[in-house]
């Protein structure tokens, strides 16, 4: 049993190591790379993995604490930012932000209103529209729990110099572009084997 646990731990600790994930260089040609650089990149990938795990744990704890789903939480965050910026949030703006249909938005708002998280008001300048705001209780609960934990990202970034921040921004933007599915035909096909 101990050997099985050791093997599992060995695999788990190497999950982001490129030499373990792609030993033959089929995905990433490392033949011209310095072994130290390969090791550092693997360490960076492992750090990103730890960040994703921390974000996932925070997300799950947030959802459980607030008793909401991911879309509900995104809607509440949008309402907090709208309120902070003095922007009137409408169902249409919420639908656009969440990339969901107006029918789904109506269901979402009904659910949030029943739970006491939002208030629907007449729009002050458009009689055909509604204005949506977060309740003070939900705003306070979100800010004192999830918001406070999320704000620690800013504190971590504040520890970097201006030059380091530029490097991190450039790296993250480049990685985002590399991971984009815009040119990935397999992702556009919808299901495995349908291409």
From TrEMBL:
Q: Report which residue ranges the record marks as coiled coil.
A: 44-71
Identify the taxonomic lineage of the organism of origin: Bacteria, Bacillati, Actinomycetota, Actinomycetes, Micrococcales
User: What terms describe the molecular function in GO for this protein?
Assistant: DNA binding; DNA-binding transcription factor activity
Q: Does the keyword Ligase apply?
A: no
What name appears for this protein in its UniProt entry? DNA-binding MarR family transcriptional regulator
Give positions of region: Disordered: 1-33
Q: Which UniProt keywords apply?
A: Coiled coil, DNA-binding
Q: Which superkingdom heads the taxonomic lineage of this protein's source?
A: Bacteria
SMART domains hit by this protein: HTH_MARR
> The HTH marR-type domain covers which part of the protein?
41-177
Q: Which N-terminal residues, if any, form the signal peptide? A: none
InterPro entries xrefs = HTH_MarR-typ, MarR/SlyA-like, WH-like_DNA-bd_sf, WH_DNA-bd_sf
Q: Which Pfam families match?
A: MarR_2
Keyword DNA-binding in record = yes
Gene Ontology biological process terms in this record: response to stress
Specify residue ranges for compositional bias: Low complexity. Answer: 10-22
* Organism of this sequence: Glaciibacter psychrotolerans
